[in-house]
Design a protein that fits this description.
By secondary structure, the protein is α+β, with helices and mostly antiparallel strands. The chain is built from 4 helices and 7 strands. Pfam families: Acetyltransf_1.
Length: about 170
């Protein structure tokens, strides 16, 4: 059974472990250097300060994934658009946990009056592409060779979900 709840500071070590694994071993995250617990704390404090949600997924009382959204671009005209992230421990993928996290994140975004949710996905991460498609996201663009990690150029795919059709 999976429980989705807002993250708290006691979850940050587990979030850090999941995040750092992806930094070191995948192109899910284009960072190179693992984060410190202090950096993860600052990240969390900034999310809270800006009113952005950070959710965790737990199985057997252990954090196995997290999701959040934040500013898409800093100019005020973009204030109704957010970019999201969903991260899972490797052995918890394909079990519906990511879906539960993202659905809750979408619900929170709708309640916050967000109009569009955007996700940037490495083009080699076909599982994430299908995952987003399943939840109604549509591909809106591909940027060729905009990232570089593990001695190769990386393409990123942007997908979006329009949450509300009405103008605020």
């Amino acid at each position: 059974m999976v429980t989705i709840r807002p993250a708290n500071s006691s979850d940050l070590k587990d979030i850090l472990d999941i995040n750092n694994h992806e930094i070191l071993h995948s192109t899910i995250n284009y960072d190179f250097v693992p984060k410190t617990l202090q950096e993860q704390n600052l990240w969390f404090e900034e999310k809270v300060k800006q009113g952005f949600p950070v959710l965790v997924a737990l199985t057997e009382q252990k954090v196995v994934g997290f999701a959040t959204y934040g500013t898409f671009r800093p100019k005020p005209g973009y204030r109704f658009t957010v970019e999201h992230s969903v991260y899972l421990e490797q052995n918890h993928r394909g079990k519906g946990i990511g879906t539960a996290l993202l659905q809750e994140l979408i619900n929170l975004a709708k309640k916050a009056g967000i109009h569009v949710m955007v996700g940037g996905i490495d083009s080699s991460n076909y599982g994430s592409y299908l995952f987003h498609q399943k939840l109604g996201f549509q591909e809106i663009g591909r940027f060729k060779e905009v990232g570089h990690k593990f001695d190769r150029w990386l393409d990123i795919i942007f997908m979006q979900l329009i949450l509300e059709e009405k103008i605020p």
